[in-house]
Fold each of these.
Amino acid sequence: MQITEHVYQVGGSTLSHPSDAAIYCVTDGKVTALIDAGTGDGHDRVLKNIAKENIDASAIHYLFLTHCHFDHVGGAHKLRGTFNCKVVAHQLDAQYIEAGDQYVTAANWYGSFLTPCTIDIKVNDSEKSFAIGSLTLNMHHIPGHSPGSVALTVESEGKLVLFGQDVHGPLNDVLKSNRDDYIQSLEFLLSLDADILCEGHFGVYFGKEEVKNFIESFL
Ligand SMILES: [Zn+2]
Ligand SMILES: [Zn+2]
C-alpha cells in the first residue's frame, strides 16, 4: 500500500499476519529503510508485499525498530537475515530485544517466544538523523509506552510523515511504561505538527487536524 511517493506500508494485521503491528517502508528508490518487523509469523507475506511494490531487496539498508514489543520486533531476526540490513533501535529497548526477554517485550502475551535479534546501531540520543539516500529520516526518543520507544519522521511530497507507532499505548508496569514520560512524549508528537501519521495498529491518518485529534485523544 503506497502512502506517499516515498512511503509504503508492507505489513500489518491485514497485510501480513493478524498479530503484526504495521510495517512501513521509506525509500528514495535507491536506498530503503523498513520501520518495524511484525511478529515474524507473516514473514513470507512481508517479502511478497515488498516485491509487489517493486522495492529492490538489495536496497534495504536499515530496519528501524520503534520499540521492543513482540508485535513490532518478532520478525526482526528474519528480516536482518534476509536483507543483511542494519537493525537500529534505542539503547533502552535494544537490551530486551538482544536478550530475548519474554516479558518486557510482551512475547508471552502472544503465547510466543521472541527470537533475539542483534541490534547493529544502538541509539542513545534524544534525536538522531539517518540519510536514506536523498531522504533524511529523523529518530526521536519518545519514552512512555516503553523506555526506549522512538518515533521517526521524514519529509515526503513537502509533507511531514510521522511514524508514531504505538501512540495509543497501552501503559503497563510489566512493559516498564511510564505515565509522565508518555504524556510528555504525546505533547512532543503534537508539537511536530505532522501532516500524516502512520500508526502501529490504527492505520494511517491524513491531514494535520486528523493527526492532532488522534494524538490528543490519548492525552
Ligand atoms: Zn507496543
Ligand atoms: Zn504494538
Amino acid sequence: MDKIFIFDTTLRDGEQSPGASMAVEQKVEVARLLAGMGVDIIEAGFPISSQLQFEGVKRVAENVEGPTIAGLARAVEKDITTCYEAVKPAEKKRIHTFIATSGIHMKHKLNKSSDEVLKLATDAVTLAKSMVEDVEFSAEDASRSEWEFLKDIYTAVIEAGANTINVPDTVGYTVPDEFSELIQFLLNNVPGIDNVVISVHCHNDLGLAVANTIQAIKAGARQAEVAVNGLGERAGNASFEEVVMAIKTKGSYFNLKTGIVTENIYQLSKTVVSFTGIPVQPNKAIVGENAFAHEAGIHQDGMIKNRMTYEIMTPQSIGRSKSTLVLGRHSGKHGLKTRLKELGYTLKDNEFKKIFDKFLELADKKKEVFDEDLHVLIEDELNILPEIFSLVYFSVVTGNKVIPTATVKLKKNSTMLQEAATGDGPVDAVYRAIEKITDTSVKLVSYSLNAVTHGKDAMGTVTISVERKNKQYRGYGVATDIIEASAHAFLNAINRILFNKL
Ligand SMILES: [Zn+2]
C-alpha cells in the first residue's frame, strides 16, 4: 500500500478562519496532539505575518518532535529568511513558499507578467533550498491557472530544488474529474515530477474539498493538505478527519494508507473546538454529535442485530466510545489517571493535580462522570489563554415578574472587582455586569448551549461569538450550571480581546 503524507494546516490556514485565533501555548498543544497521532507535516503558521505568528511557529519548532515543521512564506526574500528563523529549531524543517499563477491573480493582485512570476518562484525556491533541505512550492490558485504555465513553473521549481509541489484549489472552484485530469497532466508533462511529492490543498466553497482531495490522490498526488474540523479560509479546507477516514475505510479500494492513529481523532477535534471556540455541526461527518447516532427504529433494530448494517466504521475507530459510566468520587487519583491515559491524555503532575481537583468538584455535583465530561474538563483546563480576569462569584435574581439582576465578582491579578447590573434575562444581566467590571463592551453575535452528556445533571458547554470594533472573537465555557458556563464563555471572549491588545 502506498502511503499518503498528511500535511496539517490547522495552525495556519485553519487559524485564518474568522475568530479562530489561538494562543501560542494552545498551538503547541495542538501540534503535540498532531505529532502523537503520526501527522507527517505540521504547517505551524505564516511567520512574516505577525510577531505572534512568528512566535507560534518557533515555539512549535522548539517543542514538538516527530513531524516536519513547516512555515509559510511568500516568494519574497524577507518572508523566506523570517520563515527560516522560525522553523530553524525543528529537527525536520520545511519552508513552504508560494506565488499566484492564475491570470486573474497575476494581473490584478501581483501586477506581474508570467515571466516575472516564474523568475520570482525559481529565485524563492533557490533561496529556500540554500537554507533547508526540504522545500515546498505552491502555485496559488493553480486550479484557475493555465495548465501550460503550471507545467513551466513546476518544471522550473523542481530544477531549483523543490521537494514537494503543491497544487492548490485556492478558491474551491474545481470539481473531482477536472482536478484529477490536472494532476495527470502534470504527471505526464513535468520533467522530474517522479522525484518529488505532488500535494493538493483544496478549499470547500462548493462542498467538494474532500472529494477533490481524494480524486487527486487517486490520480497520483501523495500529500493531502487538511485542517481539523475542516477549518480554514471562508468555507474551510478539506477536513483532516474526513480525508483520513475515507482513506482508512476504503483502504483496500484505493490500495492506500496514512500513518495516522485514528483513535485520537475525536479528542483532537474536541480540543480544536475548545481552543478556537468554533463548534462542529451535529451532522458533521466523523466528529459531529450525530455521526454515530441511529434514530429510526428500523436502523436501531438492524444495529442491535449487527452493527455493520448501518455503520461503515466504528465510533471506537476514531476514539468515541459509547457514553460509559467511568468514574465517581471514590475512583481516586489512580482511577482518574488510568482512565485519562486510556483516553490518550498524558498530563504533567501540576496539570493532573488541577484536573483532579476539578474532577472531585464535578463528582460532587453529578454522581456519574462520563468520558465526555473528562474530555471537557481537560480541554477547559488546557485552554491556556491567559485568564486576565477570572470568575470568583456570581449571583442572579430572576423570574417572570422581576427584572433579572446579577452581581458578579471577578479577580484580576490579586484584586477583587464587583459590579451589579440588570438585563433582559439572567445571562444578559451577568454579561452586563462583566462588561462593567472589565470596561469592555461588545456585541453578542451568537450564543449556543449544548449538553455534554445526557441527564438532568449533564455539563453544559456554551459557545459564543462577540463583536468588537468589527472583529469577531469566540468564547467557550463549561459548567454544570448553564449561567456559570455562559459567564465563563463570555469571560473567555473578553480575555481573548484583552489578550490580543497586549
Ligand atoms: Zn488555503
Amino acid sequence: MKLSQSTASFYVPDRVQEPQDLARITHLGIGAHQDDLEFMAYHGILAGYDSTEKWFGGITCTNGSGSPREGKFVTYSDKEMQAIRRIEQNRAADIGQYAAMIQLDYPSEIVNDPHASGPVSDLVEILKASRPEIIYTHHPMDQDPAHLGVMSTVIRAIRQLSPSEQPQQLIGCETWRGLDWMLDHEKIIMHVGGNPELAEKLNGVYVSQISGGIRYDLATTGRRLANAAILGSSQEENGDQVCFGIDLMPLTKADAPSMTDYIFGFIKRFAVHTKTHLQHIKS
Ligand SMILES: [Zn+2]
C-alpha cells in the first residue's frame, strides 16, 4: 500500500501482523486529530477490546501542527509538539489494544481542501485493505473545519468503493458539538458504559492537550453520562454511558441527497417537533 505522505505511519500494538495487513479490522475510526478517536469512536474501541473476533483500527488524518502548547509544553517547537501528539496517539492504541493505528500526517489545510486527492486515495486504499463493518467519523454539524474536512473525505472515499467493499454503517460522532438535540428515534445510540477504567485511561493519555486547563477527558465522560441520563438510562444499576451518532451511510450512495438537504431534514423535523410542543404552552 502506498500512501501519499512519505511520513505516514502504521503502528501495530501487538506486532502479530505486518503493519499494512489490515484485514482483521472490523471497526474503523477516522478522525482529524490525535485524541479524536478516543473521544468519538469509543464504541468501536470498546467492541474490539479484549476480543479476538472484533478489532478496532484507527486513522488520524492530520499531523497535529499548530496544536496549542500550554503548561510544561509551552517551550516546545511545533515539530516537537507534533512528535508528542503522535506518541500519545500510539500510546492510546497500545492501551485500547487497537489492531492498527495509522497516522496520515497531513497538514490541516490539505484535509480541509475539497480538491485534495491524497487523503481520499489514501482512505480508499486503507478501506479496501481493511473492509470494516462499521466506520466512525465526525458529524456534519461539528464546528471544527478539520473535522468537517475529514468527514467529507471519508464520504468521498466510500463512494469510490464497490457496494461489496462498503461498510454496513457509517456513523457521524460527537466531538466538537453534541447530538443530544436530535429526535431520539433518529439518533444512533451507542452504549459505552462497559469499561469506565479503559475510558479513563484513554482519555487521560492526551496530557499535551489537557495541560492547558481544558479538561477534555472529564468533559467527554460528562457528555456520555449526560447522554445516558437524557435517555433515562440508569447509571446506578449498570453504569451506563452513551455516545450519540448520526447515520451518514445514505450520503455514500449513488442516489445520495446533498449534504445540506440531508442534514436540514433532521433540523426541520426537530423544528416541527419543537413547534408542536410549544403550541401547547401558553405564553
Ligand atoms: Zn479534533
Amino acid sequence: MGWNRKVLRVNLTAGTCTEEALNMQWADEYLGSRGLATKYLVSEIDPRVDPLSPDNKMIMATGPLTGTMASTGGRYTVVTKGPLTGAIACSNSGGFFGAEMKFAGWDMVIFEGKSAKPVWLYIENDKAELRDASGLWGKSCWETEEKIKEQLQDPLVRISSIGVSGENQVLYSCIVNDLHRAAGRSGVGAVMGSKNLKAVAIRGTKGVSGIKDFGAFLKATNDAKKVLADNAVTGQGLPKYGTQVLMNVINEIGALPTRNHRDVQFEDASKISAEAMHEKRASDGKTHLVTNAACFGCTIACGRISEIDKTHFTVKNSPKYWGASGGLEYEAAWALGAANGVGDLEALQYANLICNEQGMDQISFGDTVGAVMELYDLGILTA
Ligand code: SF4
C-alpha cells in the first residue's frame, strides 16, 4: 500500500533532522497511523515519563491510505503520552496536512527532546530543517500560518501549528492545521509547546508511491466511494448537515448532556442544530452556513464553512472574524452550547473561532466551563 518507507526523526535538543527506514514489519502488523505510531511510541519512551518533559516524544503519522484518492484518507494522527490523562494520546485531524506529508516522501515524523528556543520545522520534499520561531512565538495559529506562507512565498505550503494555548501548555491545547482542522483532543498541543516547537510546514510534490496494483486500487476506491454516495448518512446527511446533524437526534432521545450533564435534553437544541445553520438570519438574510467542505480526497465532505452575523455583539467590533471559517461540528456545538445552556448560535460560532485561532480544544474547553458554572451554582466557586 502507499508507504514511502521513510521516517523523519527530529531531535529538537540537538537541532538535527535525520532520515531512517520505516519499520515495515510494524507497518504491516499495526495497520494505520494510530497503531503504527503507538507501536513506535511505546517502544521508545519510558511509560512513566512526564508528558511535558523532553523525554516524551511526539509523533505525527500518516497511514497507508493517506494522500491517496480513498475517501477519508487525507487524515493524519498525532501520538504522544498525553498530559491531560497521562495515557497514550492519539489525536487525528483532517484537512490537507497529512496528504502533504505523504507527498513530501515521509510516512511519519518523530519529535524528541526539547529545543532551547522556539523553532519551526520546514519540510520540502526530502529536505528538512529547523528554523527560528522567535518571531512566531506568541502568535495565534492563524497568524502563524499567514507568516510562514509569507516568509516562504508559498501559498500552497501546508502547516500545523500551536497557538498561545499550546505555548502555555494548557492541558487541552490542540495542533491546528489548514486554519480550522485540528488534532484536538488529549492535549497534544501542550506537548508540542513543551518542546518549543511552534509549527511544522510541509511542501511535497512527489505524489504517493508504493501502490502495487494501481488498477485494482482504483477500482476498490471507486467502489467504496459509490457505497458512501449511496448511503443516506455519508451521501446525504453528512454532506448537507455535517456532524451537527446529531444535535436534534441526540436531544430527541434524551442523551444530550446539558448544563454540565445535569440535564439530558436542552430546550434550545434546535437553535444550535445543523438545521439552524441552514436558516436565514433576520438581520442580514444570509444563512450561517456558507458551504460544506472536504478534507483531501474525501467525497463525504462533511466539513462546515460558516459566517457569523457581523452585527452580533461578539464580533461587531472585530472585522477579522467576519469572513468565512470552519465550523460548527457537533461536538463543539454541544460542548460550547448545550453543556453550558447557551442557545445562541452566533456566540457558539465565535467561541469556536477563538478556539481554532488560539489552538484550544473546543470540546474540553466547553465542558470545563460547564463544570465551572455548576461549581459556581453550588457555591463551591465564588465570583
Ligand atoms: S470530509 Fe468529513 S468524513 Fe471526510 S475526512 Fe474530512 S472529516 Fe472525515
